[in-house]
Design brief:
Blueprint (H helix, E strand, L loop, with lengths): L7 H21 L1 E2 L2 E5 L5 E2 L2 E6 L3 E5 L2 E7 L4 E4 L10 E9 L6 E9 L4 E8 L4 E9 L7 E4 L5 E2 L4 E7 L3 E6 L2 E7 L8 E5 L10 E10 L13
Antiparallel strand pairs: 1-2, 2-18, 3-4, 4-7, 5-6, 6-18, 7-17, 8-14, 8-18, 9-10, 9-17, 10-11, 11-12, 11-13, 14-15, 15-16
Length: 230
C-alpha cells in the first residue's frame, strides 16, 4: 500500500512531478532502448527543436499525420543521433516515395562531428518503381559500404517500412520486414551529431514524398519483429 502525503503542498508537488514525468516520456517516446520520432509537428520532433528548410507540409490522412517533402527544397534537421555510442542498432522509417521524385533521394541522413555517416536512400526507375539504397561509413569501414539491389523494385505512391540494421558485424537492410541485402562491415560507434530528413546534409538529393515515423533501437531487431505495412 502506498502512503500518500497528507500535506496539500506536498500533494501538489507530487502531482506536478508525475505530470512532468509523463510529458517527458511522451515527448521523447523512449521505451526500453527504443526512441520513436513521430512526424506530426514540423517545429519539434522527438522532443528536439527542428531546423526547417523550404516548406515541408504537415498532412493528416486516415487519422495519421505525416510530413510531405517537395523534392526540391524541403528538409528537416535535428541535432541528435539516437544511436550514437551504440555498437549495435536498428533504424526503421515509415515513408512513402512519390512517383515523380528525383532519381536519387537521400531521405534519412545521420552524421556525427567526425564524418561517420548512415544514410537511407531511394533510387527511382522513372517507370513507377523504386528500390532501397543504404550506406554506412566510419573510419574503420574505409570508403564505406553500400547495400543496393536494383532487382528489388517496389511501386511508388505506397507506404513502406524501411530498416537499416547493424548487429556488430553485419549491415543489412529490409523493406516491410523482408531482407534485401546484407554485408559484413567494420564499424565504429557514432559520436554526437545531427540527423536530416528529406535531404542529404549537404543539401543535395532532395526527397519527394512523405515520412510518418522513425524508430531507433539500441539492438539488432530480429527479422520477424521488424515493422511492416501489410
Amino acid at each position: 500500500m502506498i502512503a500518500w502525503p497528507a500535506d496539500r503542498g506536498t500533494l501538489q508537488l507530487v502531482k506536478a512531478l508525475l505530470i512532468l514525468t509523463l510529458m517527458v516520456a511522451f515527448e521523447g517516446r523512449i521505451v526500453a532502448g527504443e526512441t520513436i520520432w513521430l512526424l506530426d509537428n514540423q517545429a519539434k520532433i522527438g522532443g528536439h527543436a527542428v531546423t526547417i528548410f523550404g516548406e515541408p507540409a504537415l498532412r493528416t490522412e486516415a487519422g495519421a499525420a505525416a510530413i510531405w517533402f517537395d523534392g526540391v527544397q524541403d528538409g528537416l534537421w535535428l541535432r541528435d543521433i539516437p544511436f550514437s555510442g551504440q555498437s549495435q542498432f536498428t533504424i526503421e522509417i515509415l515513408f512513402q516515395p512519390a512517383a515523380d521524385g528525383p532519381t536519387e533521394q537521400r531521405f534519412f541522413h545521420s552524421e556525427d562531428t567526425q564524418g561517420r555517416r548512415a544514410l537511407i536512400e531511394t533510387r527511382l526507375d522513372g517507370k513507377g518503381g523504386w528500390w532501397l539504397d543504404t550506406f554506412i561509413v566510419t573510419p574503420a569501414a574505409g570508403p564505406g559500404v553500400t547495400l543496393v539491389d536494383p532487382r528489388c523494385v517496389h511501386p511508388t505512391g505506397r507506404w513502406y517500412w524501411a530498416a537499416l540494421r547493424y548487429d556488430g558485424k553485419t549491415m543489412a537492410h529490409f523493406v516491410n520486414g523482408r531482407k534485401e541485402r546484407e554485408e559484413r562491415v567494420p564499424f565504429e560507434k557514432f559520436g554526437p551529431g545531427q540527423t536530416s530528413l528529406g535531404v542529404r546534409q549537404n543539401k543535395v538529393h532532395w526527397f519527394k514524398g512523405a515520412i510518418r515515423e522513425v524508430r531507433f533501437h539500441s539492438r539488432p531487431v530480429a527479422d520477424d519483429d521488424l515493422q511492416r505495412v501489410r
